[in-house]
Amino acid sequence: MAVLQDLLEYQRLDGELRKIDLELNATEEKKKLNQAKVVMRNAEARIAAQDKRALELRALRDSLMVRVDEMSKAIAEYSEVEELVEGGGDVSFYKKNAQQLLEKIRSTKQELNKMLAEVEQLSAEYKKLMEQGKQMNKQRKEYTEKYKEVQAKYAGRIEELTKQMEEAAQKIPPEVLERYKLKRKEKIFPVIMPLNGDMCVCGMDLPLAQRNRLAGGNIIECENCHRFIYKQ
Ligand SMILES: [Zn+2]
User: Fold this and answer.
1) CA-CA distances (angstroms) from residue 194 to 1, 19, 214, 225?
2) I need a labelling partner for 229 at 20 to 30 A (CA). Which of 6, 28, 49, 167 fits?
3) Which residues contact 180 (CB under 8 A, 6 or more apart)?
4) d(CA 9, ligand 1 centre) in Å
5) Rounded (5°) CA angle 139-133-35
């Protein structure tokens, strides 16, 4: 029985702290601060992706330059085409080669244009991201200060509740407290709840044998959701 009362008291204090936490999270100051953090984090990730793409584009540029070099050399060979043809060379062979070369130049030009368009787009996006980052950094600084002021209003009450909770925790068997905290980590609240008919709040039916164990203020743990159950 004692454990039940102590656990309920601990949960009551926990609930008060949770309420403050929810209130703090719902403030305009916290929302603006979070918004700035999220936008900045996303911008950083996007800039990192851009940096990676820039490296790929640099490699692409290098390979295009190699191709341009090759094509220049091939074109240079055509300065001797007259002599070669006069010396018995096959005109149609050179014609075919020239066409292939022309096709290669066309496709290289296309790739270059595509690359330049992407570079322009990346650079415009980068400018936007930096502008946004500057703005959000300002917002982050401004609302860090404002949020501190809001927190200060609650500090006394939080300290008081935390101290009371620490005292209440000492009365609870460590393994029970450990299980309670584990549930809270999963954002579950309340952790300890009264029997709801023959069921746990999660909807799990409790067999009679288990329900019988609730007599005398005993606590059981739901096999499904692992909440603590007691009988009112
Ligand atoms: Zn349950």
Assistant:
1) 14, 21, 10, 14
2) 167
3) 7, 10, 11, 172, 191, 192, 228
4) 21
5) 50
pLDDT of residue 19 exceeding 90: yes
The band of 1, judged by pLDDT with boundaries at 50, 70 and 90, is low
For ligand 1, the distance from its centroid to the CA atom of residue 218, given in whole angstroms, is 16
Ligand 1 geometric centre to CA of 16 (Å)? 23
Over residues 172-188, mean pLDDT: 94
Ligand 1 centre and the CA of 215: distance in Å? 18
Alpha carbon of 191 to ligand 1 centroid (Å): 10
In angstroms, what is the span from residue 173 Cα to ligand 1's centroid? Answer: 21
What is the pTM (predicted TM-score) of this model?
A: 0.72
Instruction: Report pLDDT for 214.
Output: 92
Query: Residue 202 C-alpha to ligand 1 middle, in angstroms?
Result: 4
Least confident stretch, 86-90, 125-129, 184-188: 86-90
Rounded CA-CA distance 52/133 in Å is: 19
Q: Is the pLDDT of residue 92 over 90?
A: no
CA torsion, ordered 37, 41, 47, 49, to nearest 10 deg: -160
